[in-house]
Design goal:
Number of helices: 17
Mean pLDDT: 93
Strand content: 5-15%
Largest sheet: 6 strands, parallel
Number of strands: 14
Radius of gyration: 23 Å
Strand order of the largest sheet: 2-3-4-5-6-7
Shape: globular
Low-confidence stretches: 1-7, 345-350
Helix content: 40-55%
């Protein structure tokens, strides 16, 4: 039964309602349950909150025992960005792999199955899919999270993903509006800027969002990026021109607008999270995402008080805050009814296999005609770049675990730096080398290591698990279009001839 603490005034309840905070641990702390009773309507989950499907189901049940209509949100893109399987790697390939296959029915089926698993654990809002067009190959934060570099393809797959996810009773949150693909800066660290003109923006960045809106995306997440053509002064998350005039007005979107994490440095280091949150709501956002890095009651209290104070000082219209809170409640009602009405799927492939089927279809293999599958355990050299914050460094990746299953005795280690190639040669000894890379084109040290390996050992197998921009090379080259566990599984099958 939904409860609201007696004595909590409407303004304070509305301020709590628009927050989407995180918390530490695998059970809900007392302060979070208390805030749910006072009006908090959403909770965000991250890898730190999830140990198993059963534990997650128990956690969401605990939250709903305090507030039955709570929105339980998660950042579960599948592929490289997984919270549901943060400790093992995802059972689903990410967007770039699905875009490489270019079968919208497969994308819909994968999104539906991912949504079904989330719904079974009590999650009803997914901060996905990424509708960003990865037009800048040097992008440090989008990359394989994008369906690709072609706007029309990204639009098709974004719409299919939204449809599949929501058919399972989980609200989609299409991100990062108005498009984070043409950036060379990670907004977790600083404020990126896109200098494209209006025609480019219309036919590139906005096309997938129009498709998502047409598909009925229940939520849209704003980006912490500056787009001077649209607003020369404020990043999208804080921009009335972008959130209200463009997204609401020109694109006709009437669902929930969620901010990206307000603790990200693009906002926190420039405006601060309190002022940033007030400006975001004033600009047209309806929900404030915070909790990836800040996950405590003090953060909730600070943001609640900042919003209440802004209304009382006249800096934020009370009706704007009330409208935002009402949109949160409307989505909560939709999620509650959708979870009961979602039909059981009748997919062409079994639920267990859909992710692996997609991963296998996503492979691009070069040199297979002259390649003899390995029969002896190889040495797997993982050329490891620094992971961006969205992906995180807690999720395992590569092909070693799957190759060890197929070829017992496989050894592996991670390498980085200018001397990586020579160190790998010494460590591998006489074993066949499988070099696993991620975005070789973005890391000169990685390309140099492959140069060294292939000069000394031309029979080296190369597996590219990022965006395949560098020319294929090696005795066998496999582009997986992502580093999910199933992508490694599919590549290992080719290497071992399984």
């Amino acid at each position: 039964m939904t409860t609201l603490a007696s004595g909590t005034d409407t303004l304070t309840r509305d301020a709590l309602t628009v927050l989407q905070p995180g918390f530490p641990g695998t059970t809900a702390p007392d302060w979070l349950l208390r805030r749910l009773g006072e009006g908090l309507a959403s909770v965000g989950l991250f890898g730190r909150n999830i140990a198993s499907p059963d534990q997650l189901a128990a956690l969401t049940a605990q939250l709903r025992s305090e507030r039955d209509d709570v929105l339980v949100a998660i950042d579960e893109e599948g592929g490289d960005v997984t919270r549901l399987e943060a400790r093992t790697g995802s059972s689903f390939p990410g967007n770039h792999a699905l875009g490489a296959v270019d079968d919208v029915e497969l994308t819909r089926a994968v999104a539906h199955e991912l949504g079904r698993r989330l719904a079974a654990c009590g999650v009803n809002l997914n901060w996905a899919p990424s509708a960003d067009v990865n037009s800048n190959p040097s992008n440090p934060v989008i990359g394989v999270r994008s369906f690709g570099a072609d706007p029309e393809s990204v639009a098709r797959h974004t719409a299919a993903y939204v449809t599949g996810l929501q058919s399972a009773g989980v609200a989609a949150c299409t991100k990062h509006f108005p498009g984070h693909g043409d950036t060379a800066v990670d907004s977790h660290h600083a404020l990126p800027r896109i200098d494209a003109g209006p025609t480019v923006l219309e036919h590139r960045e906005l096309l997938p969002f129009r498709a998502a809106i047409a598909a009925g995306s229940r939520a849209v997440m704003s980006a912490h990026i500056l787009v001077p053509t649209l607003d020369p002064d404020r990043p999208a998350t804080l921009s009335l021109r972008i959130l209200t005039d463009l997204l609401r007005g020109q694109l006709g979107y009437d669902g929930l607008i969620v901010t990206d994490g307000m603790e990200m440095q693009a906002i926190a280091a420039t405006y601060g999270i309190e002022r940033g949150s007030v400006l975001a709501i004033a600009a047209g956002a309806d929900a404030i995402c915070v909790g990836g890095g800040l996950a405590d009651d003090e953060t909730v209290r600070r943001l609640r008080d900042a919003l209440v104070g802004a209304v009382r000082s006249g800096d934020l219209p009370e009706e704007r805050l009330a409208e935002a809170a009402q949109r949160v409640r409307e989505l909560a009602r939709w999620a509650a009814s959708a979870s009961q009405e979602a039909p059981d799927p009748a997919p062409d492939v079994t639920r267990v296999d859909i992710g692996l089927v997609a991963a296998r279809r996503a492979l691009t293999v070069t040199g297979a005609e002259d390649f003899t599958p390995l029969t002896a355990p190889p040495y797997v050299a993982l050329l490891t770049p620094v992971a961006n914050i969205a992906v995180g460094d807690e999720t395992p990746w590569g092909v070693a675990a799957e190759l060890a299953r197929l070829l017992p005795g496989t050894e592996t280690a991670g390498f980085a730096g200018d001397d990586a190639g020579s160190v790998i040669l010494q460590a591998a000894g006489t074993r066949r080398i499988v070099a696993v890379v991620r975005d070789e084109h973005r890391h000169p040290w990685m390309a140099a290591a492959l140069d060294t390996l292939l000069a000394a050992r031309p029979d080296t197998v190369v597996v590219e698990m990022g965006v395949p921009q560098a020319p294929p090379r090696g005795a066998l080259h496999i582009a997986t279009h992502g580093a999910a566990r199933v992508c490694g599984h599919a590549a290992a099958e080719v290497i071992a001839g399984a």
